[in-house]
Amino acid sequence: MPEKTLPKGPVTQLAQLVEHVSGNVVPESFFPFLAEVARERRLACGFPDLEAYVKALAAGRLPEEWRKLLSAITIKESSFFRTPQHFEALEKQIIPLLLPSRHATRTLRLWSAGCARGEEPATLAMVLAEHPQLAGWSWTILATDVDEEALEAARKGFYAEKALATVPQALKERYFTPQGNGWLFSPRLLQRITYRHLNLIAEPFPSFPEPFDIVMLRNVLIYFRLASQQRVLAHIAGVLAPDGFLFLGPAETVWQVSDRFEPVDLGGCFAYRPRLASAPTPLRLGPIPPKKPPKTLPPEKKPSPPKPKPQAAQAKEVLAADPLGEAVAILAQGRLREAQEALQKLLAANPADAQAHALEGYLHEVAGRPAEAIAAFRACLYLEPDLFQARLLLAHALRRAGEAGRAQAEYRHLLSTLGAGGGRELDRLAGLPLPTREQAARQAQAALEGMNTA
Ligand SMILES: C[S@@+](CC[C@H](N)C(=O)[O-])C[C@H]1O[C@@H](n2cnc3c(N)ncnc32)[C@H](O)[C@@H]1O
Fold it and tell me: Once rounded to an integer, what is the mean pLDDT over residues 261-272?
């Protein structure tokens, strides 16, 4: 009997084990996929059925097996210069701010936690190598992941042509050399990166000889439950320099998760720094001077995380009779799975709720399911074609999926809607970091320019 038709028991148990071992919540919609992966793995290990395989895993009799299993089921969606605003802020604001206090040792230590196949640490290495003020400095990057196979790939530094689509041409020429049907990342920069296996959930959390100046923990916590997020952030707070900075993914926040950090408004995005008892005032660095966005790197979407609101307002929001608002509030706390479940119920009750479909698309996006995200945004726009933010998200998703023609058509549609004074906001998703009309128009324009010159 194929595992897909087995009673839920062993698959559910396996999902719980995966969460226990790695923090990653496996939503029920993933169970058929998990069952398929588990079927392959238990056959490879020679177990007669799934139950026996899960039992052996649970009893700790297959410690090596987690390597294969986690590699198959963790989401490795990443790209060079992902969320480009972060790297621009790093270059123009954070590094210049950190350098004076580190001038004596001329060292800078960065950590890319959850580095996937190395796109993020390689991007950091390029940004640091390009930084004129860092010439002669001994900067180093620690890059860790729970997935050993992803780490092996990262150590090789080999990437397919498509993966380099978001690397500016000048950097591509400087730091990549063609090899076979792909590109090899500069061995000189690769040397600066130490790739190491590290499960952020496993206890004890490692200690490090020196604190980190910058930690990137982007698009990892989104798959964890609140308690796991809290644990990981507490550990990160312990290894970050008191004046260091933490970057999270655009859909992640410390709001209602950890009071060890405070947000730093960088103009185009947010970072977080350790909250010091003596520094209650939020730091606001000057915005990055406006400039034409680089053609190869139009912004993905407005990256600011949901902002903290006064207690009363939060309570009111969550208790509001609007279940969609409640799903948004749950998502804002990073409880992806619960948000998804709330949304599923809502859509079952009212499949014609366009804004619920938009939230569904947003959730699929952050969970790295682009095809489903595109379908959900299309459903939203079929019901209410005027929702301009949904159209922008659809266009971005199509572009990332390599559907340039369709993406261009959606960007143009958006610009003509906004240009004619039309377009309505996703007002019931107000807790999400969505672009304003002006930002949407700018992003669409920049994306079209970038695509025309690509
Ligand atoms: C969606 S990718 C994000 C990659 C990169 N940080 C970015 O934003 O582009 C999430 C990564 O987190 C890793 N990950 C998941 N659970 C982890 C854990 N418990 N410890 C360390 N890494 C984990 C996954 O293997 C995957 O490579």
Answer: 87
